[in-house]
Design goal:
The complex is a heterodimer of chains A (100) and B (355).
Chain A: E1 2-8, E2 11-20, H1 25-31, E3 42-53, H2 55-70, E4 74-78, H3 82-90, E5 98-99
Chain B: H1 2-34, E1 39-46, H2 49-59, E2 73-79, H3 84-95, E3 97-98, E4 104-105, H4 106-109, E5 120-125, E6 144-150, H5 151-166, H6 173-213, H7 223-230, H8 236-243, E7 249-251, H9 258-264, H10 270-292, E8 299-301, H11 303-316, H12 320-332, H13 337-351
Parallel strand pairs in B: 2-6, 7-8
Antiparallel strand pairs in B: 1-2, 3-5, 4-5, 5-6
Helix pairs in contact in B: 1-2, 5-6, 6-7, 10-11, 11-12, 12-13
Classes of the chains: A alpha/beta (100), B alpha/beta (355).
């Protein structure tokens, strides 16, 4: 899993590439640690090249979402491929995280 | 000469008043938070030099020292409801030392047939037990004025001040009378707001007891009743069963986004939701089993139970893919992906003979 983070004015653009599973979820969490800081974050995550997420990945997204909400910010995941989107749908996570 | 002395004392004490302003605001804010009181305004200001000069020009002889002018620092709490003024004043009495001789309840100063300025003014000091700064002992000796009034009383007072302030001449008696009439109307409105709040609170209490009693068919579905119903954890058994498919855990998310969906599904009472659960929980579980078994996904949102119940209900009613798309659009906003998702769920439903 490759994570690219770019700050553009008030917005933080994140690009995810690859799969998130039990072998790299901890690393993924470390890679996005900087997103857990700062007030009123505005985070846009491009999932075009994210090929899969396991429940470990869902937990990291959940952690990030809770952190963003606690700081009065917003976060969206976009361009998710149908296979990954289905993981969010069948677990009910589409109700927790904004996916466009 | 006397006024110049008072002005000089004012400049000398200005930094203490500024510090006192911060302390008073913090103390009031903490007190309101601690007592869960929401107010429409909390503000404080130190009287400007210009304003003080104006006051001294009018009534300079009345004041011997700066301490005689009790509103150099003024704080104000504006409540939503007029009856909250008494609650706030009781809290202020506990917190501050009140100079009763100089405090006034303008609400009680008006004759029964007169309407006008309604506000409670306390002249206060900060006791050392509440706040103490060894470098600023004067902070506990100096007075400040605390005004407490409702939002509507505040509106009237502001407009009266603004109209009077802008005029070069005294307001003619007929216009004063109009202002008094408006004060009377706003006093009535304040009373009505108090009454409406009381009625709404009573309604909420009734709704909670109706939901708790289990007479669900008699409970209309609305935001309050749905919230009360959710406290009974009605989807717990189903979601625990779904989570157990992969020996997983449940993340407790909000089900309130489903309230509008249930209305669109023509649910009229809480009883309709209970029937949906009883009639469709097994199918909702079978759908989850088909989707989750073998995936290793060991975390689900609490809402997944209600999501699957809605999906099953829509399919059983024959609304098909279009109905599912409407459900997803209502929950998450329009998205081209919803068509694929609806199609896939219909295929899954056919596999488990749901339709």
């Amino acid at each position: 899993m490759k994570v690219t983070i770019n700050k553009q004015n008030e917005k933080t653009l994140v690009v995810l590439d690859g799969r998130i599973d039990s072998t790299n979820a901890d690393q993924f969490q470390q890679d996005i640690a900087s997103l857990m800081e700062g007030e009123k974050p505005d985070i846009d995550i491009d999932c075009t090249n994210m090929t899969y997420t396991s429940s470990q990945g869902l937990r990291v997204f959940l952690l990030l979402q809770k952190s963003v909400m606690a700081r009065d910010g917003k976060m969206v995941l976009r361009n998710m491929n149908p296979r990954v989107k289905e993981v969010f749908d069948i677990t009910g996570f589409s109700n927790i995280i904004t996916i466009i | 000469m006397h006024c110049e002395m008072l002005l000089s004392e004012y400049h000398e004490k200005l930094p203490i008043y500024e510090k006192m302003k911060t302390v008073v605001l913090d103390l009031l804010r903490n007190c309101l938070d601690k007592n869960n009181i929401l107010v429409s305004g909390l503000e404080a200001r130190v009287k400007s030099e210009q304003s003080l000069i104006g006051k001294l020009e009018l009534k300079g002889n009345k004041y011997h020292t700066l301490e005689d002018i009790t509103d150099i620092l003024g704080a104000r709490i504006i409540t939503y409801y007029s009856d909250e003024v008494d609650i706030i004043s009781a809290l202020a009495e506990k917190m501050f030392e009140i100079d009763w001789a100089n405090s006034v309840d303008k609400r009680k100063m008006l004759e029964i047939d007169r309407f006008g300025y309604m506000s409670l003014h306390y002249i206060c000091r900060i006791p050392e037990t509440l706040y103490k700064d060894p470098e600023l002992p004067q902070l506990n000796q100096m007075h400040f004025e605390l005004q407490m009034r409702s939002t509507l009383q505040h509106v009237w007072a502001n407009m009266y001040h603004y109209i009077g302030y802008k005029s070069d001449v005294e307001i003619p008696i007929e216009y004063q009378r109009n202002m008094s009439r408006l004060a009377g109307i706003l006093e009535l409105a304040d009373e009505q707001f108090n009454r409406i709040r009381k009625d709404v609170n009573n309604y909420r209490r009734n709704v909670q007891s109706m939901v708790a009693s289990g007479n669900f068919d008699e409970v209309p579905l609305n935001g309050d009743t749905f919230r009360s119903f959710l406290k009974l954890n009605p989807f717990r058994n189903l979601v625990d069963k779904i989570a157990a498919i992969n020996q997983g855990e449940v993340y407790e998310d909000s089900l309130m986004p489903y309230y509008n969906v249930l209305l669109h599904m023509e649910m009229k009472t809480i009883g309709d939701i209970v029937r949906m659960i009883n009639e469709n929980k097994e199918s909702a579980y079978q759908l989850a089993l088909l989707q989750l078994a073998g995936t290793g996904l060991d975390i689900v949102a609490y809402s997944v139970a209600l999501q699957n119940l809605c999906i099953v209900t829509i399919l059983k009613k024959g609304y098909g893919e279009a109905g599912l798309m409407r459900l997803f659009d209502a929950l998450y906003g329009e998205n081209e992906y919803h068509k694929q998702r609806a199609k896939r769920i219909v295929e899954q439903a056919q596999k488990i003979n749901l339709i």
